[in-house]
Amino acid sequence: MPHRVVDFFRSSNDSIHNIKASVQRRSNPNSRSASRERPTVTSVLESAADHTQSLISAAPPVKMAEPPKEKHKDSHSHHRLSFPSLHLGGSKSLKEPPQNPNASLDWKIESPPVVMHGEPENSTGALISGQLLLDVKEDGFEVENFSARLNIHVIQKRPFTGHCQQCSNQTTELKSWTFLSEPTTLSKRVHEFPFSVLLDGHLPATTDNAVVAIRYDFFAEAIPRTGPTVKLTKNIDVKRSLQVPELPHHSIRIFPPTNIAASVHFTQIVHPISTNTFTLRLDGIVKHNPDVKTVEYWKLKRLSWKLEENMETVAPACEKHAPKDPETGLPTKKGSKRSDSRIIAHADMHSGWKSDYSPSGSIEMEVQYQIAPSTKTVCDMKSEDGTQITHQLVVEMVVVQEYASTAHPKHITPTGVARILRMHFGVVITERAGLGVSWDNEAPPIYQDVPPSPPSYSCDIPYESIESVEDLTLSRQSQEIGSRAQSPAYEERAPSSAGADEAAR
Prior knowledge:
Elements: H1 2-10, H2 16-27, H3 41-57, H4 61-64, H5 69-76, H6 92-95, E1 103-109, E2 115-117, E3 126-136, E4 141-156, H7 165-168, E5 169-180, E6 184-186, E7 190-199, E8 207-208, E9 212-224, E10 230-236, E11 239-241, E12 249-255, E13 260-266, E14 269-270, E15 275-283, E16 286-289, E17 294-316, E18 335-349, E19 354-356, E20 362-370, E21 381-382, E22 388-405, E23 412-429, H8 439-442, H9 469-486, H10 488-504
Parallel strand pairs: 2-11, 14-23
Antiparallel strand pairs: 1-3, 3-7, 4-5, 4-6, 4-9, 8-9, 9-10, 12-13, 13-15, 15-20, 16-17, 17-18, 17-22, 19-20, 21-22, 22-23
């Protein structure tokens, strides 16, 4: 019955007559005729208020009583959910390990960016050097062990066995350092520990594509006597740069059974963010038939180019999922080949070339192409584990054949013959070298480059007859005086010097 009071206040915008009629119909449905009378405004308000009060007072008190507390809690428990043990919304305590309040660890790289110059077969690698900075914030901080390591981490996006962490991750340690192997007490200051490593030239560069991801992880940890371990985790971005040749690469393709020959000049080594150009020339597009007095033309209708990216890798199997040798029972090495390809740039052209249909006719054009940064292309790479990333430039041309009479060369008639000319060119995408060069070109001469001994000096006096260094000096002076006396210049100067002595007397 309380809903009647709510309906009364909701209908306050209606007329007084409608309010009274609705209240009377609900209270006494048989007395509809009484609602047709038209009482005064005052009487209607009084009767409506009295009737509302009667409805409220007539409501049974048992139904309006408050339910028990237990039922009240159950009825409203769906409005509030409490999970004390579950932390949602980016709790730092779950993501980051507890930090040691007495020390912190950081690093400072002193070497230039890690760039390997040249092909993997000829590259001398890249040099990494820096310092680990252990900031001790109180005196008497005891460290039991302090070490670091550099790993190459390969992540298979399509592993040999799905949902297997060992098949998806392969880690190889490249270098390790032990700075403190015994318990040591450190004072309150920043302690510096230098480290360096030479990455071999055959190692792959850092990459992240659809089939595999390769990265270099650097870990350092200091284990104190009390408190949590002080850790440092960093990633090293390793790149490879190839030298761009001064002259573009030249390629000639012939398309039988036609006489069309394509001559292409293009840059074989390009950069991810750059504008590149290749020039194209088609020869043999005009053919004369003197017997029937006709001329055949090949006209270029469309040219399209695209830059393809091909990725291949071998996903190895872990010891658990690798097949076992039936004779020895040991797991054997096995892997599955994974490959993927995509188009990182393309365009279609229906004009923009210059055509010459003279007896020695040709078609020439210059095409510019670039790679959009949004494609996130990866550079060429080749590693010893079977991972390889290559790129190629594909050029397709649609030519149609037309012929005309020698007497009326402007009356051209299509023959209905068309050809698709397709060419593939290997393109290498590499990083820019920047201002750096290979580390072996920057380094000063090393000890192995010095000759094994100083240069030898000739001596006419046998060493057995020399008793001391003074005798050797005197003998050398006497030899020099004797050689000067025997020289003709000394003889010419001798009289002049004697005449000068007599003049002086």
